[in-house]
Input
Amino acid sequence: MDTKIISLRSPHLILAGVNSLERLGDEAKAVEAKKALLVTDKGVVESGIGERVQALLKKEGIEIDIFNKVIPDPDIGCAEVCIEMAKSERYELILGVGGGSSMDIASVASVMSTNPGRIQDYLGINLVKKPGIPTILIPTTAGTGAEVTPNAILTDVEAKLKKAIVSPYILPRVAIVDPLLSLSMPPPVTSSSGIDALTHAIESYTSNNATVLTDLFAKEAIMLIGRSLRTAVANGNNLQARYDMSIGSLYAGIALANAGVTAVHALAYPLGGQFNVAHGIANGLLLPYVMEFNVLGDIPKFAQIAQLLGEKVEPLPLLEQAHRAANTVKAIYKDLKIPQSLTELEVPKEAIPGMAKAAMNVTRLMGNNPREMAVEDVERIYEEAL
Ligand SMILES: [Fe+2]
Output
């Protein structure tokens, strides 16, 4: 029997579904905002989504300024520029619209507007003392789950590492997940963000901190993403696939926020920090190899993953069912037509010992892994992915 205490940390309000964006004006009014800051990137502005968001706020008489300089995998410098703008005026609301990068920068700007000092003072767990300016986070991709997680990830360029502010104050007041916004996402972004979401779902399901509650969200997410990721990439206008991916990513985010991710994310961080490999691609590439290693740590759950991904596993013995899970994920990843090996990503074999050491240092995630991993195991997994 599971003896863990069930807890659920989430935004004040989650609004999800087709046209849920229409509720933005009401929610902005509810925090009595007169002036808001929209944190986003150039792509979101060009897609017209930025304008829609502005129009919805203007209709309620709310003034809006735009910060559109968020870059992919943003560094501390990018966050500092945004914080400067957030502090230059009196904003009662900060909106983060875009992928995980825009949402994370919005959350960082929110808490850094009310807490003294520098970003570096808050990198770590529960170091933020005061709530920030209220935020509304609106994903335009389906993958990061940043709209429902208490983590804001920033690249520390000098240390060549991804670091995180982990705090309940990073969670937004409102998360709005409207699948219609993901229709404009190009196939490579759909692939890499979608496989990130699948990684969140599988890792939080098998995390040592999983509870019966996070399992509900994680299992549903694995099923939704497993049945729709390929279609969302192959036909971006398929609304059912986009819906499944948006809701699946949201559920995976809720599971991750409360159960944590495991070794896949720990091993992916050095790839991002040292070789600029996109977060989703690094995760997707490593996922089946880490799963294969982890099988013995929780055989029934891995067997369940294979089933949730649509594999006909009965009447195979349970252990064989569990091994099918990694193969199924590998088959999905192959169909996404994104880099299939570390070599393709120009990561040399010689880099492995250094990356393995760096991954072992991500103790926050390694401690969640269902099977204990030694540095030699990590090196072997990187070698398998070469
Ligand atoms: Fe992730």
Summary: The longest helix spans residues 212-234. The chain has two domains: 13-181, 185-384.
